[in-house]
């Protein structure tokens, strides 16, 4: 695998944080922290709450920062109170969307089948997808991490074409490491990211797998990012808490450059 052929992607998942005014302030701070830096080798995305999208798009305009959303529905419209469609996101200037985050699966009943429907809808609308997969602590302790990850990838990508894979990023997020302060070792992260790539190679072909960006997400921060990002199969990060602090987020971006 030649990591040099894949562009690193650092995406911040803001979760349920920041008002529109605070979103503007944070994006301006990230721009200031990175002033003068050459970011041509890394794609930077801020995935923000729905209410922050307009403010984020305006603040990021003309900069190296892309704006993403944290979820979307699979239908274009209808009686789905509280949901947002992919077309709505595109109309608001969104380019990326996170789908299948473990918090959506854990707290809001999302399954691999509904994740697959959301992925299809997002791609059809022209969005780039950050698809999250990851095992529970008991699954890791049972030694079935690779089986669980492979199953998730296969179901989540059902009926997705090789051509569409160009607009998909897979984020490996061990559920036991999200928001807990625990982090997979660099070796563990590299191993599972490699397993994701191997599964994609079997589903499609080696060239699709070679081109696929696989992120690690699970308490990546300013202190551990360099080691994690040095691994051959780790092409970037889906960042939680550290994405809410401009200096820490910049440190991670710098490590990815």
Topology readout:
Layout: E1 8-13, H1 20-33, E2 42-48, H2 53-60, E3 65-69, H3 86-91, E4 96-99, H4 102-108, H5 112-125, E5 128-133, H6 137-141, H7 145-156, E6 168-172, H8 186-203, H9 206-211, E7 213-216, H10 225-229, E8 236-239, H11 246-256
Parallel strand pairs: 1-2, 1-8, 2-3, 3-4, 4-5, 5-6, 6-7
Helix pairs in contact: 1-2, 1-11, 7-8
How is this structure best described in words?
With 257 residues, the chain is of the alpha/beta class. Helices cover 41% and strands 16% of the residues. The protein contains eleven helices and eight strands. The protein has helices at residues 20-33, 53-60, 86-91, 102-108, 112-125, 137-141, 145-156, 186-203, 206-211, 225-229, 246-256; strands at residues 8-13, 42-48, 65-69, 96-99, 128-133, 168-172, 213-216, 236-239. The protein has an eight-stranded parallel β-sheet with strand order 7-6-5-4-3-2-1-8. α1 (20-33) links the parallel β1 (8-13) and β2 (42-48). α1 packs parallel to α2 and α1 (20-33) packs across α11 (246-256). The protein is globular, with a radius of gyration of 17 Å. The protein starts with 7 loop residues before the first strand and ends with a helix.
